[in-house]
Specification:
Layout: H1 13-22, E1 24-26, E2 29-31, H2 36-47, H3 72-89, H4 106-122, H5 124-137
Antiparallel strand pairs: 1-2
Length: about 160
């Protein structure tokens, strides 16, 4: 899978210029349309999850709604857009594995995990299928999706 890296201190000016040339503005946010990490970051920023705050105390959470301080619908829309980009990057129908080991594959794992995690806050049963899919396309399960998949140790859903 082709990986689009966000410019950083290690990239040269030519790469930075090429990246910036391909960027677009969507919903007031500038991103490279194929930068999967950008969709993940924006989704988490929009959700503004309480557990990302250093003062977060899980004992203060009375319901799942207490975890989201931002706009969950907007966060899900960004994560879903990123998943669509990912799906278009893979051969159809994709039935193979996508190992976590190669660095170029990791943004895909982070994105699908972000989408499933955010979806779980709103629709746990719909999210279960995404966690299960993560276990299938990455049997080593470096992201820990097996814990949240149906019948997993941390799942609130029985096996489906």
């Amino acid at each position: 899978m082709e990986r689009v890296w966000r410019p950083d201190e290690e990239t040269d000016e030519a790469y930075d210029a090429a990246y910036d040339k391909e960027c677009v503005t969507i919903g007031g946010r500038r991103l490279h349309p194929r930068d999967l990490d950008a969709y993940t970051v924006i989704a988490y920023q929009l959700a503004d999850l309480a557990d990302q705050d250093e003062e977060f105390d899980p004992n203060d959470v009375e319901s799942e709604d207490d975890l989201v301080q931002g706009d969950l619908d907007a966060a899900l829309a960004w994560a879903a857009a990123g998943v669509c980009v990912l799906q278009q990057s893979l051969p159809y129908p994709f039935g193979d594995v996508l190992p976590y080991g190669p660095i170029d594959n990791r943004p895909a794992h982070r994105l699908v995990y972000a989408y499933a995690s955010l979806l779980q806050l709103k629709h746990p049963r719909k999210a279960a299928a995404w966690f299960r899919a993560m276990v299938y396309f990455s049997p080593m399960d470096n992201m820990g999706a097996r814990f949240l998949a149906p019948s997993g140790p941390s799942s609130s859903l029985p096996g489906l």
